Amino acid sequence: MDPKEILRKQFLKVVNNQLRDNEPPITAITLDRLIQEGYKEADAKQLIAVCVGATFFDVVNKNEAFDLIRYEALLKKLPQLPE
Predict the structure, then answer these.
(1) 10 Å Cβ neighbour count for 31?
(2) Domain segments of the chain: what residues?
(3) What pLDDT score does 83 carry?
(4) What does DSSP assign to residue 67?
(5) Please, which residues have CB within 8 angstroms of residue 34's CB and are 6 or more apart in sequence?
(6) Could you tell me the maximum CA-CA distance found in the chain, to the nearest angstrom?
(7) Which of 13, 52, 56, 62 to pair with 46, CA 20 to 30 A apart?
(8) pTM of this prediction?
């Protein structure tokens, strides 16, 4: 399996876990907002997963701790994708 596909699936799993646990709550709020804006649920989850990935790469590449405030800021900007 393609490594990018493996990561995509793992990031989506994180999204689903966040939704199941309602932690952080902004994930469910963002999903609801994107659906109200006309996105299909699966597409909205993929957008959220992009933010999970961006946050993950900051942790790995910049050797930083998870930054919930940055993650929330990325989610609030959706559907604009993080750089």
Answers:
(1) 21
(2) 3-77
(3) 80
(4) -
(5) 43, 44, 47, 48, 78, 79
(6) 36
(7) 62
(8) 0.94
Looking at residue 1, its pLDDT comes to: 76
Report how far residue 22's alpha carbon sits from residue 16's, in angstroms, rounded to the nearest whole number. 10
Output the tens digit of pLDDT for each of the chain's 83 residues.
798 999 999 999 999 999 999 999 999 999 999 999 999 999 999 999 999 999 999 899 989 899 999 999 999 999 999 98
The dihedrals phi and psi of 75, each to the nearest 5 degrees, come to -65, -40
Three-state SS for 17-57 is HHHHHCCCHHHHHHHHHHHHCCCCHHHHHHHHHHHHHHHHH
For residue 75, the model assigns a pLDDT of 98
Q: Any idea what DSSP says for residue 79? A: T
22, 27, 29, 34: CA torsion to nearest 10: -140
